[in-house]
Amino acid sequence: MRGLKKVSNRRTDALARTGWVEVEHMLAEHYRRAGFVVDHVGTGASGERFDGGIDLKLRRNDEYIVVQCKHWNALKVPHNDVHQLIGLMVNEGATGAILVTSGEFTRAAIEAATRQGHVHLVDGDDLRDMLGPLPEPEAPSRWVAVSESDLGRHATSCRVTSASACSTRRRIEFERDPAAARWVSLR
To answer: What is the CA radius of gyration of the chain?
Structure first.
């Protein structure tokens, strides 16, 4: 994601720690409560790798609104995403579009949405107001199945680093427990 600008206020609250799939589901539920019929077509609902740029399709009376969610906490959503959503809105025959981020938009994105008039931007502050207080997300499992061959028979410790789709890094440390003859989590 070269060339993207960093957010000015990186958050560490419950929403920032919530996975993007859950954020899509929370938004779908929010719009259902607001009276929309919601078709959740994003990867968070379908399990597909690509969603074509639309996560939710909202319908109410004569309104048809396409929604794209960007659960970005470190980088600002640029104007390119606004322009992409405008194209999707036109191709879908939608009456409007909403671009949601849990973070921030660039000034160019805000200007593009304002100039076009059919794209409503929901930034991290607005999103937190919409969803209200959130419970802490469940912690990931403390145990990871790792075979001896993966770690090496004679190793005495191991560090596993994995990165999720939203670029959050988590390091899990293990240590050989000689008494139990197995690897145990140090978390």
So the answer is: 20
Amino acid at 74: A
Q: What is the DSSP string of 40-67?
A: E-SHHHH--S--TT-SEEEEETTEEEEE
Q: Is 14 helix (H, G, I), strand (E, B) or coil?
A: coil
Segment 20-50, tens digit of pLDDT:
889 999 999 999 999 999 999 988 777 777 7
Q: How many CB atoms within 10 Å of residue 145?
A: 7
* pLDDT tens, position by position, 110-150: 999 999 788 999 999 999 999 999 888 776 544 444 444 55
Both tokens of 157, joined, read 């410790």
* Dist CA 35 CA 59 (whole Å): 9
pTM above 0.90, yes or no: no
Q: How far separated are the first and last CA of the chain, in Å rounded? A: 31
